[in-house]
Amino acid sequence: MSLPSPTGHLALLAAEFDRGHDVWRSRTGSVCVAGPDQARAVMGNRDALVADTSDFYRTRRGVFGDRTEQTGIGRAARLLIKRHLSDHRGELAGLVADRLAPTSDWPDAANLLVLHHLRDVLLHPGAPPSVHAVLDEIVRRGVLAGARDRHGAPSRFLFRRRAHTALHREVLARRQRGRAEPPRDVLDVVVTGAAPEAYVPDLAEVYLSFLFATVGSIGFALAWAVLLTATHPGSRSAHPSWIVREALRLWPVAWLFARTPSRAQLLGGTEVTGSDRLAVCTYLVHRHPAYWERPDEFLPTRWSGSVPDEAYLPFGHGPHTCAGATVALRLLEDLVELLTRDWQLSVTHDGDGPQLGPALAPPRFTALLSRRDVRPGGR
Length: 379
Ligand code: HEM
Hints:
Elements: H1 8-16, E1 23-25, E2 31-33, H2 36-43, E3 58-59, E4 62-63, H3 67-88, H4 92-100, E5 103-106, H5 108-122, H6 129-143, H7 153-175, H8 186-193, H9 200-231, H10 240-250, E6 256-259, E7 265-267, E8 270-272, E9 278-281, H11 282-285, H12 325-342, E10 343-348, E11 355-356, E12 360-361, E13 365-371
Parallel strand pairs: 2-9
Antiparallel strand pairs: 1-2, 3-4, 5-13, 6-9, 7-8, 10-13, 11-12
Helix pairs in contact: 3-5, 3-8, 4-5, 5-9, 6-7, 7-9, 8-9, 9-10, 9-12, 10-12
Residues 43, 54-56, 70-71, 74, 77-78, 81, 210, 213-214, 217-218, 221, 253-254, 257, 314-316, 320, 322-324, 327-328 line the site of protoporphyrin IX containing FE (HEM).
């Protein structure tokens, strides 16, 4: 079965990349960056070459909070999720059997599995049932791949209003709690980590960023790993961490980063000014032929040796590097280990390309899982 090919905007960037120029003016209107060195310079904001910003904390009004609030919230969320993963690790095998076998429709199955596993840390069980219901609906309508196209504009508008009202009411209720009390979930982390006068809709939006990062990004990365492993049977015996790293290399869920140059300058031989938009494309960085051998192939065993770390940025680079990278990798590796060790995987899909949005999600596919006879001590 052939691997999916890039589609839409991604296909255009891939076609424009001539391998001779790592930075170029794209027909998409942005200045595209595909060179590892330039990508790290932009994302690491070397020599203050871009306006410092965090996509994660961007809200409709601008950017939420100051840097101390942002990093404090990111760190506290990671710690809470890490503890939750440790406490609930033993439930993963049952979850895989119940929710994925014998057949499941992906990538949605991956997103919903992650939602189920992280549910209590995203929204504690004592939160009002109406807020839990809104959370489920946000996932169905806004996080699952292609979800936004499944509903008409009026329905989307009405739902957005209802969801915002419910979340804003919940944020206000949480503000009444003592700030010294330990956080029960990620919403507590956001509310107590922000200044007391923080704008309520901003807090709701930051909370939604965490929902997209967990249920969306981890789910899509898991789905890519399953699709690639199932279509490359020889890779099943590779170490789960190699499978996850290679899936994130070939199909980085966070595939495009927008930044604005802080001044006129030369970037990778291309003149850029403060009115340009830079688009760092990690999909192209991760397949750069000067850094990766057989860049378009799924080869998990390449991670057994030395790899060009400088051309690998699935969690970003520099001051805004992902706060949740370690917890995301841990959950992904645990799930991939269970899936490849205990289950025989096969998939069917109709050959569509990836589903492109703010995240790079795999095409829809159906997975068949049948139990593997596991010999003691063997994989
Ligand atoms: C496979 C899963 C994930 C991927 C691929 C991913 C990717 C990324 C990337 C590329 C960035 C940098 C964005 C930029 O420079 O503009 C980022 C930032 C961030 N991520 Fe993740 N992420 C994932 C999961 C998570 C999880 C589970 C959390 C929960 C703690 C999280 C929290 C954050 C935060 C707070 C930031 C902002 C960091 C800052 O600006 O200080 N991410 N993520």
